[in-house]
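check this one:
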Amino acid sequence: RRYFVTAERFNAAEAHRLGLVHEVVTADSLDAKVDALLAAITANGPAAVRACKRLVKDVASREITPQLRDDTARRIADIRAS
């Protein structure tokens, strides 16, 4: 929220520290990193990728409860088995 309301600028290292980005790479390494991520995603079955995306959407913003944890674990197991 802080950066949203203050419009402060921050660099890639700070974005990484804040958890806004997963990795920071040099400009020279960017295409290779994108290619590696695309290869990892496309190596998975389309139905499993859809199920993963649906799961993330379904649990976003929900309170973490034992029931949510159990449902999430079951769904992840189903995705992996597919």
